Each structure stands twice: as C-alpha cells, then as structure tokens.
Amino acid sequence: MRWISHIAIACAVCAVLNPLAVPAAAAGSTAPDWIEMLRRAVSRRKVKHRGATHYLVGWLLVMGFGLVVWDWNSWVYWFGAGGLIHWTCDALTVTGAPVGWWSDRRITIFGGKVKTGGTYEYIITSVIVAICVLLIVTRATTAGGFIPFFYEWGNYFERGLVDGLEWRNNRFNMI
Question: Is the whole-model pTM more than 0.85?
Fold first, then answer.
C-alpha cells in the first residue's frame, strides 16, 4: 500500500483510542519503509524491500516494549502500533508481508487481492477511516464527550465554559 493509506488508517485508528498519540502512530505507520531507506543509504549490502524492517515480530516487540518496559505518554506503543498497521496493510497486498527472520515466506490476508495504488486499496482505506470517524462522532455526541481536534465553541459558550470574547474570537476556528 502507499504511504497515504498507511498514515490515514493508523491515524484514524489511533484517534479513536488515543488522540494525543496520533503523531507517533503516523510516524510508525511509515517507519518500516523509511528505516529501510536509511539502511539502504548507509549499507553497502543490498537491502531487500519488505525485509527485516517489515517483520511482524519486530513490531509486536516494539509494542510490548512500550507497554512493559518504558513508555512516555504511550508514544512508543503507538509507534509500534503504527508499524503493526503498516504490516497488516502490506499483508493485504499481492506481495504479502514477512512474519519473522526464521522464514522466507510471506503472509497474505484475504489472499492478497489488493494491488498497491489500486482501487481496493483506497476503498479499504476509506471504509476504515469512515468507521473510525463514525466511532469518534458517536462517542462524542452520545456521551456528551469531546471530539478530538474539533471544538464546538457555540456549545461551550452556551454551557458557560467560555466567555463571549473567547467565543467571538474562535467561532469560525474548526480546529
């Protein structure tokens, strides 16, 4: 899949569960590819695409490290979750994604029907993002909660949380 799909899916999923960690998930969702590019730049040996940086086990270890050993605001965990989402998206493609260093086989999900840059990639991405947006909006409206990144200044003014000046200054600011 393309980077835009990796980023969109990781950010949407993270925004539902932990909106503050969206930057870490976005960085993690592209990390297997940019780490591979860095390895290619500094290594004299040939670096294979979807090789060591794409191992499922590696991203699960990063997530485990974030949960168990050390994590600052769960950013290490969400960085690893972004990598796991990248792996899952790559496993949907025809080429598949590797599980670990012990095997040269690649895993494909749903038979690897998705072509990188193809229509199915964008349909899958759009559906996942739409579901996540629906979850965020539903949670905010039913529980009277907060929609991350979108402020309801008029509602805040009516509830007395902000004064008239703050409402006037921010009423057209959506983000």
Answer: no
